[in-house]
Design a protein that fits this description.
Elements lengths: L2 H4 L7 H13 L8 H24 L8 H10 L5 H13 L1 H28 L24
């Protein structure tokens, strides 16, 4: 980051806590999420934050509005011409090989995470099976001697 832009960053704990609160709000309804999906969602939210920031740069009065309302208006007014959309689709078709590589990378990431989870689950004591015929000794399982 250039030295002249460092002064624009927030200082202290408030910006850091605000960022954590916002990320927690984004993912409040999800109990568990795969790391690759998390990265994709963070990228989408980053684009949204940049769109809000860009709108506020051109219209300073928007800074007093709620971010969700500004994003809704920006996305609603976001218009792509048919020629731009066609060009975008053609680029996507020409980069199809790259998309396949990315999807295989995602698949490998999922498989790697599954292997890690399985290996971790085998370390848990409950994962070990007792040999057949071995019973835990308790006062209730001991045989009583007859007199």
């Amino acid at each position: 980051m250039p030295a002249n832009q460092i002064g624009l960053l927030g200082s202290g704990t408030s910006p850091n806590e605000a960022l954590h609160a916002e990320i927690n709000k984004w993912f409040a309804n999800q109990a568990a999420i795969h790391s690759a999906s998390l990265q994709a969602q963070l990228d989408v939210n980053l684009v949204g934050k940049l769109m809000i920031h860009g709108a506020a740069l051109y219209h300073p009065t928007l800074t007093s509005s709620r971010a969700a309302a500004v994003l809704s208006e920006v996305v609603h007014s976001f218009v792509i011409s048919s020629q731009d959309w066609t060009n975008f689709c053609l680029v996507q078709l020409s980069e199809n090989e790259r998309t396949l590589v990315q999807s295989s990378m995602y698949r490998e990431s999922v498989q790697h995470t599954r292997r890690l989870v399985r290996a971790h689950n085998l370390k848990r004591p409950a994962a070990f099976k007792k040999p057949a015929g071995v019973q835990k000794r308790t006062p209730f399982t001991l045989r009583r001697a007859r007199r």
